[in-house]
Specification:
The structure is a homodimer. The first copy, chain A, is an alpha/beta fold. Chain A has helices at 17-31, 46-57, 74-80, 99-109, 150-153, 155-160, 179-189, 206-222, and strands spanning 5-8, 34-40, 63-69, 85-90, 116-120, 137-143, 163-167, 194-197. An eight-stranded parallel beta sheet of chain A has the order 1-4-3-5-2-6-7-8, with helices on both faces. Chain A binds chain B through residues 41-44, 69-72, 74, 93, 95, 122-127, 130, 143, 145-147, 149-150, 152-156, 168, 170-171, 174-175, and chain B through 41-44, 69-72, 74, 93, 95, 122-127, 130, 143, 145-147, 149-150, 152-156, 168, 170-171, 174-175.
C-alpha cells in the first residue's frame, strides 16, 4: 500500500524560468512556506539526511518533501516512513527541476499547512544549480567519499548554495579527503558560506544543521514573508 | 610547467548528434583507435581507475585520455603523471559531451598513434548517457558509497553501457551496500552486461577490467575496424 503519490511531471512550457521562479516565490511568501532546494551528486546521502532532519524537527515544523527522480520511487517510500508529507516526482528523463516543474510538485504536495518544503532535486552536481525553482535557499550535500577536489570542479553549485553539508564524515579515516582544503576551496568560491561536517548515520553535525534550518524558517515567518 | 593542453571546447552546432557520432566512428575505424566513453557520478573514482589502468596497460597499448570537466585541470594534471597522452577539455558549463565536442577533443589529443582513447566524461549520471560521442563502448563506474539503489534510479546509463565497474569495493564493510541486489538490478536493466567489482586503491578487480579492455581493443583491430 503506497502512502505517497507519484506524479509524472511535464516539461515546462515557460521560456523565462527566472520569472516563473519569482512568481512561485511570491506565492510561497503568502503561504508562509519556506522552500529549500537540496542538491548533490547521486548517492551523497540527501535522503538519509532528510530522514534524520525530519526526525529531529517533526515537533517544531510541519515538513513536506518532494522527491525528484528520473525513475523509481525508493526515496519517497523511504521518506513516507518518517510521517512527513511526501510526493515522488518523476522527471521523464530531465536531469534537473525548473520553476514550472517545481510548481507542479508543490501543487501535488499541497503547501497550505507546510512550514518547510524541501525539494530533493535530481542527483546531479551540474544542471540543477543552473535553474531557480522559487526556493528561499539552495543547499548542497557533498559526500566526503566523492573527493576534496569537487568544489573546484563543480563551482556553480557551491556559488549558488547558502549552505554545504559535508556528509559521511564518519568515513574520513578510510578516504583521502583533505577537509581543510575542501573548506578553503568552498569559502574561496563563496565567501561566508555556511559549511557543516555531518554524518547522518552517526548523528554528527545534525544539531547544527537543524538549528540553521530552524533559524532560516523562523526568519522568513518573522518577516511575515 | 604544464605537460598537457587545456582546450576550451565550443558548443556543437550540429542538430543530428547520432549522425555526427557515426561519422566520428568511421574516422576512428580508419585510425584503428578504440574509443571508450567512461561515465559516472562525480567522485566515483574514474580518474583513479584510469591511473591504475594506464599503469597496468602502458606496455600493451598506446593510450590517450580526454578529461572533460566544467572547470579545473586537476584530472589532466593527475593523468599527465602517468606518462599517457592527455588533454583537458573545458565544457563551458555543459553537463555532458556530444559527438561534435568529442571531435574537438580528439583533434586536440591527436589519435594517429593511439590504440585506446578514453573520454572521461563530465561527472554526471544522467545527461552523458543520452549523447553518443562516436564511442566503441560506453562504460559506467558506480562507487559503492553511492548506494545500491542507483541502477534503478538512473537506468539509462546502465542500459547504454557495455560494462559497469562497482568501485571502492574496499569500503563495503563501512557502507550499507547490497552487492547482490545491485548486480541483480543491473542485469535486470541490461541482461548480459559485464559487471566487475573493483577497488582501484587496493588493486582489486583490475586484472579482470584490463583483460576486458584488451580483448575489446584487440577485437576491433582484428576486424580491421
Amino acid at each position: 500500500m503506497d502512502t505517497f503519490r507519484v506524479l509524472e511531471i511535464k516539461k515546462s512550457v515557460f521560456e523565462n524560468n527566472d520569472r516563473q521562479a519569482d512568481l512561485l516565490r511570491e506565492e510561497l511568501k503568502r503561504n508562509h512556506t519556506f522552500l529549500l532546494n537540496l542538491m548533490s551528486s547521486p548517492g551523497s546521502g540527501k535522503t538519509t539526511t532528510l530522514m534524520a532532519t525530519i526526525n529531529a524537527l517533526k515537533d517544531d515544523l510541519r515538513i513536506g518533501v518532494m522527491e525528484a527522480d528520473i525513475d523509481s520511487d525508493v526515496d519517497a517510500a523511504t521518506i513516507s516512513t518518517s510521517g512527513a508529507k511526501v510526493i515522488q516526482l518523476h522527471t521523464g528523463g530531465m536531469c534537473h527541476l525548473d520553476a514550472g516543474m517545481t510548481r507542479q510538485g508543490l501543487e501535488g504536495l499541497g503547501t497550505e499547512n507546510i512550514d518547510l518544503a524541501i525539494l530533493e532535486n535530481v542527483g546531479n552536481l551540474v544542471c540543477p544549480a543552473e535553474f531557480a525553482v522559487g526556493e528561499d535557499d539552495k543547499g548542497v550535500v557533498l559526500s566526503i567519499t566523492e573527493g576534496d577536489d569537487k568544489p573546484m570542479k563543480y563551482p556553480l553549485i557551491f556559488k549558488e548554495s547558502a549552505i554545504a553539508l559535508l556528509n559521511k564524515a564518519d568515513l574520513l579515516p578510510y578516504c583521502n579527503f583533505d577537509m581543510a582544503a575542501a573548506k578553503e576551496d568552498i569559502t574561496t568560491l563563496h565567501p561566508g558560506m555556511d559549511v557543516i561536517e555531518v554524518s547522518c548515520t552517526k548523528d554528527q553535525g545534525l544539531d547544527e544543521w537543524c538549528e540553521w534550518l530552524l533559524s532560516r524558517v523562523a526568519a522568513k515567518q518573522k518577516k511575515g514573508e
